[in-house]
TrEMBL record:
Spans traversing the lipid bilayer: none
Native organism taxonomy: Bacteria, Pseudomonadati, Pseudomonadota, Gammaproteobacteria, Enterobacterales
GO molecular function, one term: transcription cis-regulatory region binding
Protein name: DNA-binding transcriptional LysR family regulator
Native source species: Yokenella regensburgei
Domain (HTH lysR-type) ranges: 1-60
PROSITE patterns on file: HTH_LYSR (PS50931)
Annotated keywords: DNA-binding, Transcription, Transcription regulation
Family, per entry: Belongs to the LysR transcriptional regulatory family.
Amino acid sequence: MRYSPEALNAFVEAVSCGSFSAAARRLRKSQSTISTAISNLEADLGVTLFDRTSRQPVLTEQGRRVLSYVQAILTASDRLDELAAALSGTTEARLTFVLSDTMHPDLLAGLLSEFDKRFPQTEFECLVGEDVDVIDLLEKGRAQIGLIEARGRYPTEIGMTRMSSHSKMAIYVAPEHPLAEKTEVEWDELHTWRELRLNTYLEEDPQPARGPVWSAPNYLLLLSMAEQGFGWCALPCPLVEEFAHSKSLVMLNIIGWPRSVSVDLVWNKKFPLGAAGSWLRDYLQNAAVPHVAK
């Protein structure tokens, strides 16, 4: 390739993040490294990609035209890496899958059964993570593939596809909680009581609370806290159905809830999946749980 892959990645990431400094943080490089890489790409192309006269770099008209070509080059490179891994027939000795508690337990049970039949010699590790924690595990190579509640934007090295099935979220409290007695709860009234909120390890800018809050890094722990009556919590309905003790939680009647949640399948394009990882990705892309809300 005539152009440095590092420079192409730096350019796309700078556009995605909106600044060289944010791109540097996401790529875990210094700002000067990102700036130099983009300057070198501009020199190689003979065009100015960013207008640097304002506080934040702004794509020039030439930069906008170049962007689509660079994205196509990087996508083609990722596909070539995947093809090479598939043609080699390499099966991972170890595969780590990081899943969200929004995943329906029935889907996980079917996946594990099929994986055991097809790849009995591959060590299979399941981790549980949510939001930015899932992305961090993939970026570090700690996990190869994962599920995450759908996000609007991902780092350039993260590949994604939207799952065909959705999860469903509702707001729950313990039966002895005062809110459990109400036939309908107003949103403003809800925030006068303690919220049990998801707060991942790497969350940089959590949403400001409107009332008292306790937090935990996964939904299963939040479920346990809700069962003990410590507050109200938005939880995946399949998780409550599978793990809550009999009649230990009450679903509140609130306008707009329950709500459907889209789930994305994600992986790191820098680490092409082998036979086991590719099969897992295909299985999840085509999987459907009949009684999950659509």
